[in-house]
Amino acid sequence: MIYSYEYIVRGGTAVITADLHIHSAASEDSETPLSVILDTAVSRGLQTVAVTDHVELVNYRGGAYDTAAVESRRMMAEATVPKGLRLLRGIELGEPCANEALAASILEEGQYDFVLASQHRLSEEVEDYYFIDYSGWSDQAVIAEMERYFTEVLKVVRWNGFDSLAHLTYPFRYLPPKWREGDYRPWQSLIDDILGTLAENGKALEINTSGIRKGLGQTSPDEPLVQRFVLLGGSMITVGSDAHRPNEIGADLDAAESMLRRAGIGYVTAFAHRQPFRLSLD
Ligand SMILES: [Zn+2]
Ligand SMILES: [Zn+2]
């Protein structure tokens, strides 16, 4: 896999220079200091980055997300941002509907530039999809499991307190191989509800490029779902590598760029102070 940052540095035609999904050491699953993120971003030709550390509403205190949120904000407030780079103060807010009042107060306190919403698990009683072993699951069981997932995502989208919906097909990375090939027919009406509601509410859909590197072999969501979003009236798309290590920063943004162009969208969307702005692809 050739990472897109090489493409940017080589002066190719890839022009997405905004990576809006990066984890720092304030996330429990990353060890990358913020200073390394910023320096790496500059060396790869990026001009805009959003650091979006995990804050999950399921197991909020048990998972120490309360202190992670404070630490992430402190690092961003104290960062020395290199000239020519814009740091957007972001957050990846997991499972916001598990406690909407708490979600609202975290966002109020954080005064973020950019809020990604994600769904990594359904509740306290079940683990993150990352930890579930789906080998041997029947089609029927998988269909029911993903119906519960998309139903919860629809709830998040209706809650509407975020800017961009992260990695819509996240659990599919971990499903038996046949379900990683982009057949979403069992859930098409739920997915249409999700994408249509996002579009109607003027929210963004994220193209998360980590799926290319982690299990899916394609972005999350994949191109047909991105096109479906556009067909249903969506026009705001954010792009993120979901980097947890320095070598992933800016990775595979060119794949997202090709999708945007083929969907007839000549810009990528970013957010500052929770307001969208466009970065042209021309
Ligand atoms: Zn995530
Ligand atoms: Zn993430």
Write up what this structure looks like.
By secondary structure, this protein is α/β, with parallel strands linked by helices. The chain has a single domain (4-280), classed as Alpha-Beta Barrel (TIM Barrel), CATH 3.20.20.140. The chain contains nine helices and nine strands. The strands form two sheets. Strands 1-2-3-4-5-6-7 form a seven-stranded parallel β-sheet. A two-stranded antiparallel sheet has the order 8-9. The protein is globular, with a radius of gyration of 18 Å. The structure holds zinc ion (2 copies). One zinc ion binds next to loops.
Explain briefly what this protein structure is.
With 282 residues, this protein is α/β, with parallel strands linked by helices.
Class by helix and strand content? alpha/beta
Return residue spans where pLDDT drops below 50 for at least 5 consecutive residues: 1-13
Count of all domains: 1
- CATH level 1 name: Alpha Beta
CATH superfamily membership, which one?
Answer: Metal-dependent hydrolases
What's the total helix number? Answer: 9
The small molecules bound here are:
zinc ion
Span between termini: 25 Å
CATH topology: TIM Barrel
Q: Largest sheet, if any?
A: 7 strands, parallel
Order of strands across the main sheet: 1-2-3-4-5-6-7
Rg, Cα atoms, Å: 18 Å
Give the ordered list of helices and strands. HEHEHEHEHEHEHHEHEE
The percentage helix is 25-40%
